[in-house]
Specification:
seven-stranded mixed β-sheet; GTP-binding; Rossmann fold; EFG_III/V; 39 strands; alpha+beta; eight-stranded antiparallel β-sheet; GTPase activity; about 775 residues; Elongation Factor Tu (Ef-tu), domain 3
């Protein structure tokens, strides 16, 4: 079977002209056959490499024609999971419908995690697959399609789940609420779809709600998302009276009847109440298409009415070319118009062969042209690991196969490390259930057990050195200090390591100064979920607090010291005397240091071999100030004189004498506490300018610069880091989730007197508790 397929594949080669590596993309640095390339610098001629191009066989074309890979994305609570539940029910994948927050406490199929069902939100993206017999709008024929679906979260905190889903999908359904319309996370999802060039069809859900206005939402899509859009359906009835929709392409009335709307009834009679609106909106659909499709544009100029087939083909062309989004209407919770949406997915979204996919050849320079991959089953294997999950049987790796075929028991190569690994078990996912398969072809999504890799790694069959570009990973915006309740167990670090591996936006580090474990993520909900998962999945209960700010202490005036350290015990005792002063010091531009030890001892009163011990004692004393227990900066130590004993003096004695001298005169030097000041840049829509500036002023911020552009403005301010905690949630609240901010350390400045008093009191209290 395989040999005949390879014989069928017509092989030809094609030279690639030299081109620059696409901006914003990066590839892994592993080079399998780079030994000779490294020895000789490649010339212009050598960088032009010919690659075999595998033609798709008739079997490949037939299989890919009826294959769709789609994601369901939207703002929070727009009905993504409810819609996916209906899709699975109507395609026969599940026998019963369970609601997200249903009274039966079962929860939706795609929300498999206990936390998801409790909170009624999607936390992890979940993959499934189904078959659907679709009615083609162009011909009216019924054809069977295989659809891979990924349901994604709506919260911005879990944005990486949407990011990696859209990275591997060929098309998407953008769900919008008929009342709320385009919201903040809708804009974020739109940005992610554009980043990966994912065509989308829009579905205006919740048409049964009071105040539902799909025409306002369609205008918002055009204005806010900057994409041409038009309805391909109009509703029959409004709000509670929603009974069905009119298909403007096929010009049929579609009703849902039977138990849970599983029976679709089509009629050529358009109800009188919807007829005029349907004619008007069909004309609007043609006009919108005319702006993005030349064929329909010419017909409009010639005053010709396009046929059903011409209209359907134009919608498909414009959607795949990312110029247009057909808008479907319905209500998932009321089981209305979900089946026509599935028909639209099959009719208007691209096949895996219609999506251009490129990879970088790691044996070539970074500036070499990228290679286009062909979804041919006979081609060398190229697959991308886009999501990791800890399953019952070890690490579960979700893969998208772009080229070639992957079989159970086959050896595959890790493109980044070059490791050869065997595929022990190959499965297709249905939420948290698995179905074992023997092989998977190009354009498919599957999962593998027992492979150690990171999210975004590429796998090949070893015959090529291709590596695919990874996904965009946003930087964390919030941090918390994490501490286990009671003694720390191995499960604490095991849980943190696993979560870091699964989620690239979840970071963990140990603060060098406070020695606290700091976790960073995309929002407070994001971190709260991981803390809760540690308790449930690893039985590690943790307490969280805001991370300790890196305060500093410094002195403001000179103080002289004359300190003698004496300690007499049996035998040799300890004796050392140091004389000199400490004084404030500015940052040295050349060395970048603001602390200094100066030796001005003359006459050998302190033997030279004890001077390093004095210096060591000085730097040791700087580690912890006596005001708040924070490091001391901006201090110069000048040693003028001293005294040593021929028997009792030692390095230890001089080190202790130096520490004692600094502590004795520290208060006389008028010490103060410094706090880190951050340069904060906020970008938000112009209508929120006053709210943003007011919020920064409340946090004792100093506005440095402000710039207003057409739709948005940028504000730069200097704010103390201690006042920035909770700002991400605050900004999201005052800007409806549309504001973004970044912080950068600038300098340390004195804290307010009352803050200094609070820090001093807290430190004294902690010392008292330690002594007890």
């Amino acid at each position: 079977m395989l040999s005949s397929t390879i014989v069928q594949a017509c092989l030809r080669t094609r030279p690639h002209a030299r081109a620059s590596f696409a901006p914003g993309f990066w590839s892994f640095s592993h080079r399998r056959h780079a030994a000779t390339a490294a020895a000789v610098k490649p010339t212009e001629a050598e960088t032009v490499k010919e690659y075999p191009v595998f033609e798709l066989t008739d079997e490949d074309k037939r299989r890919l024609k009826f294959q769709r890979n789609i994601g369901v994305s939207a703002h929070i609570d727009s009905g993504k999971t409810t819609l996916t539940e209906r899709i699975l029910y109507y395609t026969g994948r599940i026998r019963e419908i369970h609601e997200v927050r249903g009274r039966d406490n079962v929860g939706a199929k795609m929300d498999s995690m206990e936390l998801e069902r409790e909170k009624g939100i999607t936390i992890q993206s979940a993959a499934t697959f189904c078959d659907w017999v679709a009615t083609m709008p162009a011909t009216g024929d019924k054809e069977k399609y295989a659809i891979n679906i990924i349901d994604t979260p709506g919260h911005v905190d879990f944005t990486i789940e949407v990011e990696r889903a859209l990275r591997v999908l060929d098309g998407a359904i953008l769900v919008l609420c008929a009342v709320a319309g385009v919201q903040s996370q809708t804009t974020t999802v739109d940005r992610q779809m554009r980043r990966y060039n994912v065509p989308r069809i829009s579905f205006i859900n919740k048409m049964d709600r009071p105040g539902a206005n799909p025409w306002r939402v369609i205008n918002q899509i055009r204005q806010k998302l900057k994409i041409a859009a038009a309805a391909v359906q109009v509703p029959i009835g409004v709000e509670d009276d929603l009974r069905g929709v009119v298909d403007l392409v096929r010009w049929k009335a579609i009703y849902n009847e039977g138990e849970k709307g599983n029976k679709v009834v089509e009629s050529d009679d358009i109800p009188a109440e919807a007829l005029e609106l349907a004619k008007e909106k069909r004309r609007e659909l043609i006009e919108q298409l005319a702006e993005v499709d030349d064929q329909i544009g010419e017909m409009l100029i010639m005053d010709e009415d396009p046929t059903t087939q011409q209209l359907a083909e134009a919608i498909r062309r414009a959607t795949i070319s990312l110029k247009f989004s057909p808008v479907f209407l319905g209500s998932a919770i009321k089981n209305t118009a979900v089946q026509p949406l599935l028909d639209g997915v099959c009719a208007y979204l691209p096949t895996p062969s219609e999506t251009k996919v490129v990879a970088h050849d790691t044996s070539m320079p970074a500036s070499a042209p990228q290679v286009e991959l062909q979804p041919a089953s006979a081609a060398p294997l190229v697959a991308l690991a886009f999501k990791l999950e800890e399953g019952r049987f070890g690490q579960l790796t979700y893969m998208r196969v772009y080229q070639g075929t992957m079989r159970k028991g086959q050896f595959i190569y890790h493109a980044r490390t070059g490791k050869k690994v065997k595929v022990p078990r190959l499965v297709r996912m249905h939420s948290n259930e698995m179905e074992d398969i023997q092989e998977i072809g190009p354009g498919e999504i599957c999962a593998i057990f027992g492979i150690d890799c990171a999210s975004g790694d590429t796998f090949t069959d070893g015959s090529t050195s291709f590596s695919m570009t990874s996904m965009f990973v946003p930087e964390p915006v919030i941090s918390l200090a994490l501490k286990p309740v009671g003694a720390e167990t191995p499960n604490f670090s095991r849980a943190l390591n696993r979560f870091q591996k699964e989620d690239p936006t979840f970071r963990v580090h140990i603060d060098k100064e406070s020695k606290e474990t700091i976790i960073s993520g995309m929002g407070e909900l994001h971190l709260e979920i991981y803390v809760e998962r540690m308790k449930r999945e690893y039985n590690v209960e943790c307490t969280t607090g805001k991370p300790r700010v890196a305060f500093r202490e410094t002195i403001t005036q000179r103080a002289d010291f004359f300190y003698t350290h004496k300690k007499q015990t049996g035998g040799a005792g300890q004796y050392a005397r140091v004389i000199g002063f400490i004084e404030p010091m500015a940052m040295n531009e050349e060395t970048g240091k603001d602390t200094e030890f100066v030796n001005q001892v003359m006459g050998g009163n302190i033997p030279s071999n004890y001077i390093p011990a004095v210096e060591k004692g000085f730097y040791e004393a700087l580690e912890k100030g006596s005001l708040s227990g924070n490091p001391i900066c901006g201090c110069r130590f000048v040693l003028n004189d001293g005294l040593a004993h021929s028997v009792d003096s030692s390095e230890l004695a001089f080190r202790l004498a130096t520490i004692g001298a600094i502590r004795e005169v520290y208060n006389a030097a008028k010490p103060i506490i410094l706090e880190p000041i951050m340069t904060v840049e906020v970008v938000a829509p112009s209508e929120f300018q006053s709210a943003v500036i007011g919020g920064l002023n409340q946090r004792r911020g100093t506005i440095v610069d402000s710039e207003v552009r057409e739709d948005e403005f940028t504000c730069i301010a200097e704010v103390a880091l201690n006042d920035m905690f909770g700002y991400s949630s605050h900004l999201r609240g005052i800007t409806q989730g549309k504001g973004e901010f970044s912080m950068e350390y600038k300098t340390h400045q004195p804290v307010l007197p009352q803050v200094q008093a609070e820090l001093e009191a807290a430190y004294k209290k902690s010392i008292g508790q330690t002594k007890k």
